[in-house]
Structures are given as C-alpha cells and as structure tokens.
Amino acid sequence: MEPTGIKAFLKKKNVNITVQTYLIDALGAMAFGLFASLLIGTIFATIGEKSGIGAFQVIADYAKSATGAALGVAIAYALKAPQLVLFSAATVGIAGNALGGPVGALVATVIATELGKLVSKETRVDILVTPGVTIISGVLIAQFVGPGVAKFMDGFGMMVKTATEMQPFFMGILVSALVGIALTLPISSAAICIALSLDGLAGGAATAGCCAQMIGFAVLSFRENGVGGLLAQGLGTSMLQMGNIVKNPRIWIAPTLASMVTGPLATMMFQLTNIPAGSGMGTCGLVGPIGIYTSMGGGTKMWLGILFVCFLLPALLTAVFGEMLRAIGWIKEGDLKLDL
Questions:
Q1: Which residue, of 152, 179, 203, is where some domain finishes?
Q2: Same domain for 205 and 176?
Q3: pLDDT > 70: what percent of the chain?
Q4: Is 144 in the same domain as 210?
Q5: Among 80, 172, 206, 210, which residue's beta carbon has the most beta carbons within 10 A?
Q6: Is 206 found in the same domain as 314?
Q7: For 165-194, how does the pLDDT look when each residue is reduced to its tens digit (9 = 90+)?
Q8: Residue-wise pLDDT tens digits, 247-279
C-alpha cells in the first residue's frame, strides 16, 4: 500500500527519519568531512613542523579552516540533498562548527538539510527559497543549540580525560574497549573522539583499542583473507567484519580482549598520548601512530609504545585468543571470510 499525506510527501522529498539515516549515515559522513579537512590538515602541520617546510603549514592552515564547510557538505551529501541544499550546507556547517563544534555542525546541518529538501523545487523562485531556508534555519539552529552542545561535549570529554588520569588502569581498559568497539561498528569512532576532544592519556587508550580491533581482525582472519584482507583491515577498517560479527558475534571476543590488555599498557607503561584527530583512527592510514607522534614528539618510550601497543601486541594477543576460541568451537572455518 502506497503511503499517503505527510508520509507520501516525505518519501517524495527523500526525507527518511530513521536512526540509520541520522546516527549512522550522517555521523559516518561527518567523519569523512573531518578526514578531508581537520585530520589531513593536522597531518600536514606535523610534517611541516618536523621537516621545516613552510608550505605544509600553509596547506594545513587552509585545510583546517575548511572544517566547518567540509562537515556541512559531507553530511548533506549523505542525506542525498539536492544541489542547492548541498551547496548551502557549507554555510550551515561553518556556523554549526564555530558555535558547537563537530556535533553542533551535525545537528544544524541535519535539520537544515531536511528542511531545505522539503522546500526544494516547490516554488518558482527556488534559487532564493531553497538556499534561504537551508541557511537561515541552519544558522538559527546553530545559534540555539551550538553553545549547549559544545559545553556538554567538552564537559563529558573532560570527565573522561580526568578519570583516565586518575584511574589509568581501569579507564585504560574501559576507553580502549569502548572506542575500539565503536571503530568496528558502523559509526565513526574518529568523529566521536574529535567531538569529545579526546586527547592525552584517554586519547592514547582510545588509539590502543582501535589498533587492537584493526590489527587484531587482520591477523585473526589471515587464513581466510590472506594479504589482501590483512591490508584492508590493518590499514583500512575492521568495520569490514561487521557482517560476519552479526552472523557470529563470538569472533569479536579476541580483538576486544586484546584491547582490554593494550589499553592499560598504553596509559600506564608507555603513557601514550594522542590528539583528538588521531585518537579514534587506529592504524587506518597510520593516522593513529602519526597522532601519537604529533602529541608526544618522539622519544624511545614513544616509539616502543607505538610498536607494541599499536602493532605487535594486538597481533599476538588476538592470535592467541583466537586459537583458544577456535579450539572450543566458538570460531569456525570461514567465519571471518570477506568478499574482497
């Protein structure tokens, strides 16, 4: 039966009010916007600082300044916005990010984009109405909710960071496990860490958890997926295993246990710290280790920490836990197979 009334209009305008749309698709797009601006800018800034090549710093400044616009366009694109709405979302993203950080940009852009989609091509003066509605509603939402959102996210992030400094062992386990799980789920751990400004020891623990998931699944599934799977997961994302996790959640146990070991090692033994842009990335493009280097600046302890926490221990621990799970029949041949 075809929907009628409001439901039919929303369907016609491609407005899908679902958790998938707003908390998975939009949040994932927000992460891509951050990657293409703030995160790559941070990497260029580090290269410029360490190499002394000023051009990298100039590029970094421009990339970072585009964060709000990149967020707006990325989120609107994920919501399948028409062209005028998509382009107008750049302004909304700038306002949302300036007043409420990445989450402020997310909220303002989502609402503005959906309102813009509703009025798109409904009048003869669409060239004025659609961007007008999108920008005005977005900026007003940013002004209304942005400061509160920013205050809440900053406060929550500070609470996590303070707790990690006070209880590095227990919080190392908790932060590492939870952020690592978020990385493998179809949401963005990177966006979450940036939104919470998760740096310092908490950032180091988060990195440990992400690396444990990526390197862990890469090694655990090597017999099924070979070198291609090793690289796709180890340098790409462990999210590739989400379909297999749904079929057999027990395959998630080994890398998660590994993260619960490497997290406190990161906070207590190696005292690894990271920047928000690198905390939730793990070994994806080696951004996590680069973030640690950006935060700590070098030193034998740092390099040993990166080697053991980000690479060796996740591989070794997950392999050991995985063999134990295979021995009791919780993981069977083919459970980790990817269609690469």
A1: 152
A2: yes
A3: 99
A4: no
A5: 206
A6: yes
A7: 999 999 999 999 999 998 888 777 888 888
A8: 999 999 999 999 999 999 999 999 999 998 889
Do 189 and 148 share a domain, yes or no?
no
User: Is 335 inside any structural domain?
Assistant: no
Whether this prediction's pTM lies above 0.70 is answered by yes
- Phi first, then psi: give them for residue 274, nearest 5 degrees: -145, 170
| Helix or strand (DSSP H, E) at 297 | none
In a domain, 334, yes or no: no
Among 122, 152, 182, where does a domain finish?
A: 152
Quote the CA–CA distance of 121 and 126 in Å, as a whole number: 5
Q: Which residues of 266-279 are buried (b: 16+ CB within 10 A; e: fewer)?
A: bbebbbbbbbbbbb
* Domain region containing 21: 5-152
Instruction: Residue 208: name the closest of 263, 260, 261, 171 by CA.
Output: 263
| Total tally of structural domains belonging to the chain | 2
Q: In this structure, what token pair is assigned to residue 196?
A: 């919470």
CB 180 within 8 Å of CB 210:
yes
Report which residue type is found at 102. Answer: P
